[in-house]
Amino acid sequence: MENQQIFISYSHGVHVEVYPEFLGISTNDNQYNVFSYRITITNESTSTVTLTHRFWKIIDANGHEETIFGEGVVGYTPRLEPSMTFTYSSMCPLRTLWGTMEGYFVMKKDDQTTVDVNIERFFLIHPSLLTKNNENLGTK
Predict the structure, then answer these.
(1) For a surface tag, which of 44, 81, 103, 125 has the fewest beta carbons within 10 Å of its beta carbon?
(2) Is the dihedral of CA 67, 69, 74, 79 positive or negative?
(3) What superfamily in CATH does domain 7-128 come from?
(4) With the C-alpha atoms ordered 131, 136, 138, 140, is the resulting torsion angle positive or negative?
(5) 72: left (phi over 0), alpha (psi -120 to 50) or beta
């Protein structure tokens, strides 16, 4: 896809790639810009890990912050042996033309210890804000 952005994070032997995309304006009330994000998680460690919980901090262009903490992702708690990959997609509605997401996945190892796999901040940006020089990232 043209102008596809990718955001990469790596911690505790787990590689996370995020591919955000603008989907359109919600058909219910025309008040939300709807973004999707596809996440690929690869276990590059030597231990098997299970994604038990997720935490997201979502901030829109006006500074409104929302936090989400819940079990698994999209109804799954994937168990990843070394070298295994899991991919899922989800959505995020925003009242503004751009915003950010960041967070972590709680991963449980087979020895029952847990680690927080960080997901660095990534951007959800309406295409109208993207110029050929990426210079227009205002709050409209």
Answers:
(1) 81
(2) positive
(3) ApaG domain (2.60.40.1470)
(4) negative
(5) left
